[in-house]
Each structure stands twice: as C-alpha cells, then as structure tokens.
Amino acid sequence: MEQDDTMLGRARVSDTPELTAYYGELEALDAGALWTVANDIEPWYPQPKSVPVLWRYEELRPLVHKALGMVKADDAGRRVVMLVNPGRKDVSAAAGLLYTGLQIMGPGEAMTAHRHQAAALRFVHEGTGAWTVVDGQKLKVGPRDFAITPNGTWHEHGNDGEDGPVIWQDGLDIPLVNALDAGFYEVHPELHQTPGKVVNSSVLQYAANLLPYGSERWSRPYSPLLAYPWEPTYEALLGLAEASEGSPYDGIIAEYTNPVTGGSVMPTMGAHMQLLRPGQATRAHRHTGSVIYTAAKGHGVSVIAGQRFAWRQGDIFCVPSWAWHEHHNLDQSEDACLFSFNDFPVMRSLGFHREEAYPDHDGHQPMPAATGAAATGAAATGAAAVPTATA
Amino acid sequence: MEQDDTMLGRARVSDTPELTAYYGELEALDAGALWTVANDIEPWYPQPKSVPVLWRYEELRPLVHKALGMVKADDAGRRVVMLVNPGRKDVSAAAGLLYTGLQIMGPGEAMTAHRHQAAALRFVHEGTGAWTVVDGQKLKVGPRDFAITPNGTWHEHGNDGEDGPVIWQDGLDIPLVNALDAGFYEVHPELHQTPGKVVNSSVLQYAANLLPYGSERWSRPYSPLLAYPWEPTYEALLGLAEASEGSPYDGIIAEYTNPVTGGSVMPTMGAHMQLLRPGQATRAHRHTGSVIYTAAKGHGVSVIAGQRFAWRQGDIFCVPSWAWHEHHNLDQSEDACLFSFNDFPVMRSLGFHREEAYPDHDGHQPMPAATGAAATGAAATGAAAVPTATA
Amino acid sequence: MEQDDTMLGRARVSDTPELTAYYGELEALDAGALWTVANDIEPWYPQPKSVPVLWRYEELRPLVHKALGMVKADDAGRRVVMLVNPGRKDVSAAAGLLYTGLQIMGPGEAMTAHRHQAAALRFVHEGTGAWTVVDGQKLKVGPRDFAITPNGTWHEHGNDGEDGPVIWQDGLDIPLVNALDAGFYEVHPELHQTPGKVVNSSVLQYAANLLPYGSERWSRPYSPLLAYPWEPTYEALLGLAEASEGSPYDGIIAEYTNPVTGGSVMPTMGAHMQLLRPGQATRAHRHTGSVIYTAAKGHGVSVIAGQRFAWRQGDIFCVPSWAWHEHHNLDQSEDACLFSFNDFPVMRSLGFHREEAYPDHDGHQPMPAATGAAATGAAATGAAAVPTATA
Amino acid sequence: MEQDDTMLGRARVSDTPELTAYYGELEALDAGALWTVANDIEPWYPQPKSVPVLWRYEELRPLVHKALGMVKADDAGRRVVMLVNPGRKDVSAAAGLLYTGLQIMGPGEAMTAHRHQAAALRFVHEGTGAWTVVDGQKLKVGPRDFAITPNGTWHEHGNDGEDGPVIWQDGLDIPLVNALDAGFYEVHPELHQTPGKVVNSSVLQYAANLLPYGSERWSRPYSPLLAYPWEPTYEALLGLAEASEGSPYDGIIAEYTNPVTGGSVMPTMGAHMQLLRPGQATRAHRHTGSVIYTAAKGHGVSVIAGQRFAWRQGDIFCVPSWAWHEHHNLDQSEDACLFSFNDFPVMRSLGFHREEAYPDHDGHQPMPAATGAAATGAAATGAAAVPTATA
Description:
Chain A has eight helices and 24 strands. Chain A is an alpha+beta fold. Chain A has two domains: 1-44, no CATH class; 54-390, Jelly Rolls (Sandwich).
C-alpha cells in the first residue's frame, strides 16, 4: 500500500499569509490547526526517537567501578551508571520508555529502603554477595539470576560478600511512569526493613508447577515469586531445546512468569531468557514494543534495523519499537544466551501489539559489512534500511 | 442459629385426605406440591449420600492382579477395579460425583485409543513401564507420578516394561458429566495415535516458572503440561516446608497447576500433594466439595466425620462434602504424603465453595477408639458425630 | 462414525461363573469391575433421564389457585406447584438439574425471609401486586418481568395488590446444588428484612449501557441488577429485529445480562427472551445443557426430539440436553415470544458446551402428525426419532 | 511523611571537578550517572507538564467556523481545531497523553476513510447532520451524543444535514500511542467504505441489559456498541439520581460501558457523563490519570489545583494527573451535566491507579477570588496551592 503524504487522506495544506495569521489566532487561545501536525503525529508506522545502541561491558565496567570510589552510596541513593539512548536523553531511557543501568555495591555496603510507583528488575552481572529485601523478604542473588521489585514494594539492597563488589543491571519503567504522570516515591520511615528469617522464601515456595496453600488469595498484579535463579532457568532452556524447535525469530525462548497467573512478572515489564544453539542464526521480525537485551552467555551478532552489533557476555543492547532484528550465535560449539526485558505487557494491555516477519532473503536483513555502535534518525526505524518493509 | 423443621420458614404441612387427593391431581399433570419435598431438597446443610470409606491397597491389589488373567484388555476396554461408595452405587462414584479405580496393565500390553467428555487423571501406584499417549504426546510415568488426560483429548495407555504389571489409579469426573447429561465417547478411527518423537515433551517444556514460546496461544481450558513427576514434586514440598508453616488443616500442601493460567489442571478436577511433618496432626475443617485421597508415602490416621481411618502407602479414602476431617502422621521421624483429587474447581466456578474450621477442642474431633471401614447414613455428614456443628 | 457397543474400544466382556464370583469378591470391598458398567456410564452421547414435557397453563392454573385455599403460606414456606419431569421425580427436576414451579400469593400475603445456596429466578405470569425484597432491595414486578434471587441472598416475597392473586414462575438450580452436595438453608433471624426506601433501586441504577459509580467495586459472582422489566426487554427485541437476522435456531434472541461483566445473570443459570417473527419457523439444533421455556406472548409449536408440542401464552415446556429442537410461530401477523432459562453457564464453566445443527431436510425434523404431551425413554434423546443424528 | 530532597534516601551529590570529568566520560559511552537525575525522574508525586486549562466554546467557535472557508476538507484530512495544553505543545496533547479538538463539517461534506492505531471518540456539540461509518456501520449522531471509533477500525465522517455545519469534539489517544512508539496509519484502499443498510445498527442491538445472539463471539478489546445517544443517557442519570447518592466527588456519575464486558469502551480511554444536582458542590479529590471535561448542560465552576474555572455549555477544560478538583453547579434550579473522557483504563491496566480525598475544609479547596484561564508550572500540581497535601 502506498504511503505518501501528498495523497488524498493525508494533510496537505500549504501555508498562506491568511493561514499563518489564523494559526496565530488559534495559538492565542491555546489551540492549533490539526492539519499542521497531523502527518507527524499520525505516522504511517512507528517513528521511535530511540536508536539501536550497544553498550560494551568492558568499556562500562571501569567507569562503574570508578563510581564506587567517587560517590558514597548514601549520597547517591543508588550508585548507578545508567545507559542513555542518544535519542532519549530527555527522559533518561535506554529505549522507548524503559530505563536501564549498572549498579555497583561494595563489600559490606547496604542501601536504605524506599518504594516507588516504578517497577524494577535486576539481572546480576558479577559478584556473589548481592542481596535485596523486597517487602520484607530477603533474597540472595548471584550471576545471571533474575529478580523483581514490583511497583510499590519496599526494597533495599546490599552486598554482604567478601570477594569484591557486586554489579547488577537495573531495569525500570521510570520513563513510562513519568510519561503517564504517575510517579510516587517514598523513603522507608525507618530507613530499613526487618526481613523474615527464611532467605529466598518465595523461591522455595514456587517450584515444579505447584502452587502452595494461600496462593489463591494472592491478589496483587505481580508475581509473588521474586527471584528466578540461573541454574534451573538454564536447565529449563536445555529441556525446552530437546522438546521444541523454539521460535524462528528468537531460538529457544521462554518468559519468566508469574506462577499464580501464568502472566508476565509485572504489569508493565516482561522478561525472557533465550538460548541460541551453536551457530544458530534466527530470522528477522519486528514488533511494537521496546526491548533491552543483555548477553548472558557466549558471543554473537544481532542485526538491528540493518545495523550489525557484535556482542559478548555482559554487553547490553536495545531494539527500538518496530525495528527489524535477528540474532546470530557465532560460536559453532557452544550455545549463547540472551536475557532481555521489555514493555510487551503494556503493548498487550493497551491493544498495541503488532508483529511481522521480515519478508525477503529467507528472513534475513542485508548484512552490512561494518559494525555500528549507534545510529540515529530514520535509519533506526528500519524503514530506510529495509525499504521493502513499507512498499 | 436454630435448625428445626418445625419452625416458621420451613414446610410443615400435614397430610389430610383433601391434600392427598390434591397431590394425585397434581401428579396426573406431571406436577407436585413443593412443600411435600421442600425440607428434603433444601436441607440446612449438605446431605451427601456418600459416606467416608477407606479402601486398603493390600486387600484390593490381589483382586486387581486377578483381573489381569480373567479379562482381556481388548474386551474390557480398560481393566479397572473401580472403588464404589456404598451410598453412590447408582452412579459408580467413589465420593460425590467423582469416580476412581485401579487399572492394571501387563507387560507389553497396549489399550486402544479413545476420547470422551469426561476428564481423567492418573496416579501411579506401582510398576515402571507405564506410558500414555495424550493427543499425540507420549508420556512415561512411574510410581507417584501424576498425569492428566483432559476432557476431549485422545488417549491410549500401555506398559512397555519387563518387570511386571503396572497399577495406576484413575480419577474421572464421569458421574459429574452424567449428572449434567453431557457425556460423549469416541473410539479413535485408527484405534491408535501416532505419537511425536519426544517423550514427556510437555514436562520438558514447562519448568522453572518459565513459559515457552507459543504458550500465549494456548487457549484450551486445561493445562498444556500433562505429567507432574514425583521427584520435583517432593522436592518442592520439602522447600515449601522450609519456607512456610503450611495450612493448619493440611500441613504442607500444594496444588498441581496449569502453568499457563495458575489455575487447576482441569476445569472440573483439581489435584494436590501434601506433606505431613513427622508426628504432625492437623486441625479439622470441612468444606463443600468431595475429595479422594491416596496415601503416597508413610502411614497415618485421618478422622472423617468422627470416624477414624488408618492408612498406609497405597490406601485410598474419601471425604464427602461438608464432612469434618483432619490428618495425623503417625510416624515420629518420617514425613508422610497424601495425594488427592477433588471437584473444587466446580465448587469455585459455580459459587458453591464454603469452608469452616472445627470450632472445638483446639480444632480436633473427638477421637473414637475403633477404626471404621465404612459408615452409612447420617453419621457421614458429621452432624451426628459433632453435634455442635449444627446447634 | 460407527457407534456400536460390540466394537473394539468398548467393554464387551460376557458373564461367566468365574467372573460372577469375582464381582462378588469386589463388592465385598466396596469395589466393582469397570467393564460391567463402562458402556452405560460412558455413553456415545448424552442419555438424559429427562424427557420433553409441555405443561399447559390452563390445566395447571386451577390447581395452583386451589393451593391458595388448601395450605397457609406460613405452613408451606412457599405455596408452589412444582413441575416434575417424569424421568426426574427422584430429584424434583423439570429437566436436567433445573427445578421450576408456579408460586401463588394472595392479596396481602407476605412470606418470611430466608436464603439458600440455590439460586432462584422469577418470571411473572399474572397479577400486578407482586413484590420481592432481595438483600434489602424492594422490587415490584409485573407480568412478563424477569427477576433474580442470586445464590446466598436473603429474600422474601409478597403481594400487595388488591386485584387478586399473583402467579409467578420460580426457576431454581436446587437439583444441581444437591447433586453437588452443596445445599445450605437459613431462615432470616428476624423473619423479615428492612428494605431500603427506593423501590426497584437496581433497575434505576443500571440502564442505557452506563455503569454507575461504585460498580467497579461489585465483586459478587452475579448481577447487581435484580429485575428486568418486560417493556424495555420487548422494545430491545424489536430493535434487534430491525438490525439483525438473529439466530437460525432461535430467531431474535437475547440473553439477560449482568451489566458489570456482560456475563450471565448468575453463575449457574442464564435466561433469555426470544421473539419469533410472524410465521417464523426456526431450524433445529441441539446442544448440551437443559432449557425450560415459557410462552410469554403468542402461540406456536416446538418440535423437540421429534415430538410436536403446541404452546400458547403461559405454557411451560422443557428441552433436555442434546435433544433436537426447533420453534414455529403459528401466527402469521403477530410475533411470539418465549422466555427461557437454562444451565448454560455451568456447561461453559466446566467445558461441557457442545452444539450442532440438524443436518437434514433444510434443518427441520420430520414433523409428526400428533401432539405429544409427554414422552419417556429413548425417544427423548432424539436418537431414535432422528436416526441420522448418530449414524 | 517528610518529602525533602536533602534527606537520606534521595540523591544529594554535589558537583566537583572530578565528577564533572567523570560525567563527560560517561556521556561519551551513551551513559550517565543516575544520581544526577534521580530526584527529577523519581519525584515524590506526579509532576505533570500539563496545566489546568479551560477553553471557552464561544471563543473557539468563530475560529472553528473560519476553518470551513479556509481549508478544504480533502486537503486537511480532517478540519480540526485542536486544543493544546501550554505544557504539552511538543506532543499536541490537551492534558497528559490525551488529544482533543473541535472538528467542523459543512453540509454535504464527507471525509475519506482511514484507520489508525490511535483510538478516537466523539462528542457532538452542535448540528444535526453528522454521520460516521465505523467498520462498515453507519451511525447518525446528534448533539450530546457520544460515539467511539476504536483502535484499528476503518472510519469516515460527514454531514448530510441541510441546516448548517456540524461541530463535534474529537478525543484521541494519539500522544499515548506516540509515547509508546506504536502508531500506524492507513488510508482506505477505496477511499470509502460501503456501509450496511441499517443505520445505528449497534445502538439497536445493545439495549436494556440484554446481549444479542452472537455477542459471545465478540473478542475485540473494545465495545461492539459504537454510539450512546444523549436521551437515554440523560434518563439513566435521572433514574440513578433517584436511587443513589452518587459520588461525593462527582455527583451522579456513570461510565459509558462495553456491554459485552462491563468494562470501559476502549482499552486506552474511558468516558463518563455526570449530573450535578441544582446547586450541588462536590468535594475535592485527586487521582492519577488525566481528564478532559466538556460542559454538556448548564453552567458551573470547577476548582482545579486551587484555580477557579467557570464553565457553561460547550466549554472544555482539563484536569491533569494528581491535581485536586471539585465541581459546583451554580444553577439553583437546573441540573448541570459534564461529559468527560480519560486515560483511566491505562492507569488500571498498568497498576498506576491511585486516588485520595482532599482532607481539609470539609473536602473543599480554598476558593480563590479570580478565575484562571490557564496556569503553568508548580501551581498546577496542587502542591503549592494545597500545602497540606504533601506535608
């Protein structure tokens, strides 16, 4: 279908002196003429300001460590290097309305407790002493573990290890909360919670497709299971690889789930772990919704909106809404794993989910020769890079 | 609150010759006077015809084995000794509208495939060669494994072991289906299905609180996970016991769940596994809904409607609707486990769920001296045995 | 598909002296051999004990009036002539697990208040003074109005008119409640409720596809709207007839709905009003679930399981589960209306809904010459009358 | 609870030369230090950029009429004067992420058909000839009627009246769709739809709390009822006023509802009509979520974030998220009605709904003497105007 702003059905009014004067009259009344902005605010397809970006862990890590010495945890609130999309500096987003950052905590450190409307999730990069207390439940998390801090829960973190700092990645929906004018923040009246005695209590309670006594009374909109350790997750993916072909676009992929509902872990953000078989190259697709990926294991390449991004363990990269993307495990003998989180629950709740497969070249975008670190503007939408998409 | 059929608000019309004649006139028109039956059909509290029964595995087992030689599998359809409540012979129910039986399959035997409106579940008692194919998925199940054959799925079973027969317990909602005039039955047009290559495919796909790609398209009203092996189930209960006090009435109890919804495995029957700590004696409660229990591990005593039932591994017993019941693990050093299935999903869907705690003696029914094998009539309701309940 | 009990896949074990002895051994243990009952309890298709019946209002009315003089309201509880299916006398059902009856209240009479697990609905046949108080809300209902008394609500009724008795039809799920051993009954501690001042409060609050303030907090499993007056119902059907072809099986049909959920009025029973255009003859279909119809307007004929039932205003008839049925408005100039209630919500909740169109003769069953008043046995299933259905 | 950015638990790092250099290093890697923005992006309570604004219909109307002569409908796409919040010019929003505008169509005009990801709604201000065709259904709408054009439906509009132009108000979620990078737009391949023969088909089909045959198959996330005429809406409010006290904050208020689900008309926007009794002054509350109000009948005053806005029929005003607001019908003998639409469905889906009552002065904000036309900055949040709210 033709998509041309000069066609009947689009706004195509040219400026005249009379119209310019008229626009001034409107502006004086806090009004305007729709046709002056219609084509911009009703685009043919999504026009994200976010661009594909890859952040290299080996570049970020020294700067994250540097923060440890430069600011006190108590002064920073949280000592976090946030990753900022060049197109979204105004809202501190890594992509779309999603925020991410790398938080460091030194041995023995503990943050104060707070809660906020924004939901948070964690993915541990390194270090063994990390703990978090969420609504009174103490959780210990290690490398590649995934944990959540749902909307409105009291939380505080720390590192009780002795073998060095912990670095974990935070993911939050702060830009979404702010876009909807819904942000609240509270410092815990006693600055710290009193945790229950059993560590990882919810991990012990939710397992093996069984729901414990009392689950039928759980009525909050998020998962009562607050942490998802790496080992059983990886084992589950290996089992899934035996039993299933997986997704043509993502390989062996599974969503971390709220065991009480089978839904996403939180109402605003979902998270997945995926496994690419040795040498596997998935097909490209695109969808509404933004995704932040973290290479959890192995090394490979992802092609996003026609740009090539090589990643290895620890690297973080983003796929803006409606950008074509595909993944390639470059190792011929080892599998590779990608952790990711997204705003798909929002897309689905609001009826905004849309997806399509890349139609040409057996599902693969033309592979460019060079590696892009970040691109801006129209290229990111995939439209320019993949002209067939809108023809 | 007083419950007396002579009080205002209850039917209390005495027969007279005129009324008797009138009732005859009504009957001739396929009609009747409500007040002649009102107090019976609107009882103060449930009046199940089912009575508490315990079936001893050591008594049943020889007769189940005997069936192996007496009838051919092909002639029997399925070679099953069903357990029949003395009060429900008319509908072949073990309790309420639930059917159960012990099915035996000799080494090398295979049944033909069929499907029906009734839903089925299996709990394996003994033997290692049991398999079932459900809608094309081959499952291997061993002792204490739980598996389902939902409403409308093609299924066939067999035993490919070499070390003797398999005995598993079937649980079905046949009496419910018939009470609602909703039964259908079909023999598979080719008598056998062609199973997929991967054995236990759904067990591999649903694990660790992750949902695989494609789960969002599952729209059937039952669990896509068709088998729940014993080992992870038991481990989950041990973990739960570390993290939780459990239920005062059931100890450490968890429901086998549909991972896609967090609901019961099927819309008409739910199933639980529970663990009683060494020496644990739970408090009594009663609820609407019927339950069939199987002792999966250990030995103990359950008091049901004031009667004492001693059980050991393999024994099966039932708790009729609204009967008081409590469980006691008699072993002071080992835990005991009870598998059970029920019609609670029906109670909840229809708004019939009701539950109450036994109010006296710290929650324990007066313990009678003798062991009852089966009781009939009013005693089963708990009303006679526990007069305070209705006073 | 062949349906023959001698085929492989069905039970076909002949009695032998050894088996007879074996069955005796089983019975002594409260057990039995499944294959002796399997074909009966797992039929090829539903085998309801209910038969199609039509109850003529002109025959029942004099007997209903007679009750007014013969028993006091206070002694009867409720003065009701119940309609009893010849195949379901054991459970006082009119069809399936549904109860219905005609209740009469003389001028100035008032019943005492009670509540029960069973849900009730009312359809007014005649008289203008009927009132009911449901959980404190006073409702006035007139001819052809539909009202509900959901599961667990306190209720009491009366007639404050001066122009004679009121006769309304009760519909309840008493047999269902009893089949599930879930019945409870309570007399109001003060025998009467204190109603709020506004009559028909919920009728005033739920109208025009608007939900009033507070509706978002309604969490009960039934409609907060308790009465559905005839006039707007009939107008809605006339509007629907302008805009829609309606159902091929039911003409212009609409379900009374819970405005807060769009679902059925109660979790165990639904109700419809349908309009047949002048001369309209619908096609036949059959479905699981039982239906009780009341001719609300006009006259016609329904063919049920091959039997012809002529009805006029006030008559009541039933369609058992899985019986073929079709309706014919015999008036060439006036529309006809049928009120009906059913157990479809149960069928849907439990996954038992199944439906099929009559495949032959343009969708019409062979029309027999004579009118049946009641039929028994196999004929009612439609199988014998319509042999093509099961071939 | 104290809310002070210098307290422990907030970011309070002062700039130093070392830190400034560090921030530069971070920026070079598309990164930043969270503590430099944390207090801004995690505010104590919502900080909308939107301010309360009232747009006077008598001021806008001449300019809307002027557009009729200045631009051709075919060139404008739609001839709309949009209302732009001074704080949201960047996204063309009237408040929050909601867009609104006044559209004019001359006699005989018809627009071309298109569809988009954004959802739309209409509220008619004046003129009798307005029609719209939504997914093939032709609707005629008159003054004060409410209609919807859900997400993804083909639609086109026109005016077939002879008595002058039509002016209606559009409400869309365009800014929300863009914030989530989810916008799509298509021109109808034939420029016009072929409407069905029955006008207002869905209005005829959904009435009187009845659901027509086929409704059970409706699976789209929006209402099948596409127009809500004024007369039955007003009558419903009058009935509601008889039966209910209504809301302390909104008087007699009801939500236009999807009859199939009882939910909001669309997944991203809800709409209400409310009636203020003669002289009624409601109490103040505040909530997350933005609201656009249109005075549908009568005249009054609303106090929003401490500013007084006087309105009369046709005027439009907005309440930003978390701003205190209350309404006052200034007429002592006539009721007043406010139409409004909002993003509450988004707030609820995402778990962002929060509400609180104004705690002081019997629920009334201090009434300022002067009328504000528009205010900017902190005043709009209500925090400055109502210091007790955050103390």
